[in-house]
Amino acid sequence: MDLSRQLPSAGIGGELLLRTQGVPARHRLEFDPQSGELRLRPRADAAQATNPDTTYVDQIASDGFA
Amino acid sequence: MLGPMEASRRKIEETVLANTFTGAFTLVQDERGTARLEIDVKVPGGGSYRLLVVAESDYPSSMPEVYVIQPLVLRDAHGRELLSISPSHQMHLLKPNSRFIRLCHYKPEAWHPNVTLYKVVLKCLIWLVAYENHLQSGRPITDYLGT
What we know:
The structure holds two protein chains of two kinds. Chain A is of the alpha+beta class. In chain A, 23% of the residues lie in helices and 21% in strands. Chain A is globular, with a radius of gyration of 12 Å. Chain B is globular. Chain B is 29% helix and 22% strand. Chain B has a six-stranded antiparallel β-sheet with strand order 1-2-3-4-6-5, covered by helices on one side. Chain B has helices spanning 7-20, 82-85, 117-137, 142-145, and strands at 25-29, 35-42, 48-55, 65-70, 93-94, 101-103. In chain B, strand 5 (93-94) and strand 6 (101-103) form a beta hairpin. Chain B is of the alpha+beta class. The chains are: A alpha+beta, B alpha+beta. The interface between A and B is medium-sized, with 24 and 35 residues.
């Protein structure tokens, strides 16, 4: 069953929902220091990140909340 | 006078925060060594919030506490004040202080002294994203962040 076709997928919230359902992440979650905001980048484009100060937040998001 | 958070650690914390939250934070430390970070963050396409991060004198051995201090009143999707339903596992909220909700962030077993206040803030920013999605969907925050 492809959960990604059944769950809301818009934006970061949709991505977080999919991850908690066990769907492999389709995007890399980043924090952009220039805008001061979280953003999603397609994994296929991740190598093209141009800002060296970008922080990859995937691990921070996935290591659980108390 | 600096307390147990050594000057070198504080310098690291301030440098990392300044690189990414320029002009959006203050970090002060009292005579007992308790550090208080106030920082403004934005949810993409959503609201702005001010967080208060309190790092006690034994930080970074201990986890800091994080409160949302602006907006002062936050409600859930059913209109209930988050302060009144805290603590709440479904909303990932810890026991609050008298005025502010307190956010869950790192699990104790995941905490490590190398984790910086910057990473704590990013983790709480993810909580805020989940909160705003909860307001739209009615789903508990655990649906977005896991249990």
